[in-house]
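During the reporting period the student researcher (J.K.) took over the structure-prediction task from the postdoctoral fellow and processed the backlog of single-chain submissions. One of the processed entries is reproduced below for the supervisory committee.
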Amino acid sequence: MDYTRALTRIAELSGDAGSERASIEKIVAEAAGLFNTGMASVFHIGPDGSLRHLASLGVSPHSIRRLEDTAGTGWASDLFGEFLAPVIAQDAQNRPPISEIGTWARLLNVATIAFVPLRSDKKTLAVLTLFHRAPYSYSSEECDILLVVAALISAAVDRTLSAEGGLSDASKSQLFSVLGHELRTPLTSIMGFTQLIRKRLSAAGAVDPRLIEQLDVLWAQAQRLNRLIDTFVDITRIERGEFVIAHGQVELTEVLRSSGEQAVAQASSHHSIEFDIPAHPVWLHGDGKRLEQAFGHVISNAVRYSPQELPIAITCRQNVADGTVDIEITDQGPGIPTARLKDVFDRNYPSGPLRSGGLGVGLYLSKVIVEAHGGQITIDSQFGQGTTVAIRLPV
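J.K. obtained the following C-alpha cells:
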C-alpha cells in the first residue's frame, strides 16, 4: 500500500492552525483509513490515569462514555506510561492483555484493538485507538507507519491540550524531539536507498533520463525534509538552553556557495544565483555547519518567494578597518509589508497569506546562529519590491 498521500494529509492536518479538535477528528479519519477500519478514537490520559475523549470516528457517544468509565481504574496509564511502541490486542475479546481491554472489545463488538501511544515531554499524553471488527494482523511495516502517524498526531493533540490547559508550554518544545526521533530513522533509509538505486541505474547504462531526474527530485526532497527535522531539533535545543556553537576556522566563500547550491537543489527549483564574492578565501572563527544553516534558511526563503526567472543575488564584502564581513542575500519577490518587518525574526513567523509551506522558524534560527557568532542580521524590504537580508559577522 502507498502510505505517502495519507501521511502527507495527516502532516498537513497536524499543522492546521484552525480548530484543533476539528483537526484531530480529520486526522483520526485519515489514520483509520490507512488501516482499513471505520472505528478509531483519541483519548487524553490524565495525571490520574483516567481517559478523556478528544476525537472519534464511528464510535457512538454512549460507547465513548462507557469506554471512559471502564478506564477509570487507571489501567491506561499503567499500560502506556512507559511504552513507546504500539500495543496490539489481536484477539481482544478472548485473549486480551488485560481484562479491561477485553471489556472494551465486547462493548464495541470488535476483534482487534491497536493502542498507539502519543508522546510528548518524554511521557504519554494520549492514545490513538484503532478498532477492527474482524481479526486484523498488523505487519512490521504497518507498525512502523503507526509510529510515524503517532508522531504527527502528537502535534495537534499537544496544541489542543495546551490550549485547554492540559499541558505546560514546555511540552511543546519536547514535541520537536519526538518528531525528530520518529522521522529521522525512516528518512535515513529513504536517502540511502535512493542513492543506491541511482548509482545502480547510472551504472546500468541505457536508462530513461526521466527516471534519473525523478530520483534526483526524491533525493532533494529527502534532504529538505532532513533539514526540517534538524530545525525541529535545534529549536528544542535553543528552548532548553542546549544550543551549541563549535568554533573553528571557516572559509566563508565556500560556505556561501554551498548554501546557495543546496537551497536551490532542495527546493527542486530552476533559480539562478548571482554570486558577487571575493575570489580569495575569507576566513573567520565560527561554526561552518551552523553558518551554512543560517545562510540556507535565508536563501531558501528567497527561492520560495521569488519568481524562477529572476536571479537571487549573494554578495560578500570584507571591512578590513573594523574586522567584519558583510553578506547580503537579495531576491526580487513580492517583498514584506512594512508593518510585518518587525516580526520576521520571531519564533512563530510567518503566518497568514505570506506563509508558503515554511515552518515559521527559519529566520528565527538564522538570527540565533548569527548572534551566537557575535554578528547581526537585519532585513530590508518593501511590499512588491523584493527583500534583502543583511548579515554582518566578525572576522
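The committee noted the following: Residues 175-240 form one domain.
J.K. will present the remaining backlog at the next meeting.
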